[in-house]
Design goal:
With 179 residues, the chain is α+β, with helices and mostly antiparallel strands. The chain is 37% helix and 27% strand. Bound molecules: coenzyme A.
């Protein structure tokens, strides 16, 4: 069964293979990463790991039993118990509920492990599949997203409150920590 794993150095070859194999597929919905991303992959990857180490981001990969990467699910700009969610899933497994199930799982993880209370995600208006994923995972539209945030395309911010994803015991602990 595929497993959601926190990104580490050992995932690098599988992440590169995933990005290369799906480059054209992703570019149809989100801005292409550009040739530099692939040319300087090791440097870029190490920079991501450094950001993760600093607690600014938390990157995850959905790993198949054979070690291949089926999807990437990232929490970025973590600040004040809030983060932005981003994701991409391999074309080979598209339309099977992979993104929806994994976003739901990441919401649980975001609350329990990273102590986040709110997740936000921006999607362009034409990306109906992504909007469907967000809606099914409990996100609601909260307003327009700046086109500069989305490669120049108009879009919408979605948001999910995670407080109910935290267990009552953890919520009590959280409350005590803030008084
Ligand atoms: C968006 C993406 C993550 C969806 O991954 P996925 O695993 O195929 O998603 P799921 O199978 O969980 O759900 C997709 C939903 O979108 C629907 N969908 C797919 N294409 C659609 C379209 N063109 N119009 C309307 N709905 C569409 C599917 O029917 C499904 O909904 P349903 O379960 O109600 O039938 C994937 O297509 C992807 O990686 N795209 C490129 C990167 C990207 O857009 N990332 C998001 C940036 S905000």
């Amino acid at each position: 069964m595929p497993e959601l794993q926190r990104l580490h150095a050992g995932h690098a070859p599988a992440v590169l293979a995933f990005e290369l194999a799906n480059r054209a597929y992703f570019a149809a919905s989100v801005p292409d990463r550009g040739d530099d991303f692939f040319d300087q992959f090791t440097d870029r990857y190490n920079a991501l790991l450094a950001e993760q180490e600093a607690g600014i981001c938390a990157f995850h990969v959905l790993v198949a039993e054979d070690g291949s990467v089926l999807g990437r699910f990232n929490l970025v700009d973590i600040e004040d118990h809030t983060a932005e969610l981003g994701y991409r899933v391999a074309q080979d497994v598209a339309g099977r509920g992979v993104a929806t199930a994994t976003v739901r799982e990441l919401c649980q993880l975001a609350a329990a492990q990273y102590r986040l209370r709110t997740l936000r995600a921006a999607t362009v208006r034409q990306n109906a599949a992504s909007q469907r994923v967000l809606t099914k995972a409990g996100f609601v539209p909260v307003g327009p997203a700046d086109p500069a945030h989305l490669g120049g395309e108009p879009g919408t911010w979605y948001q999910r409150d995670l407080v109910h994803a935290i267990s009552p015991v953890d919520r009590l602990r959280e409350g005590r920590g803030h008084r």
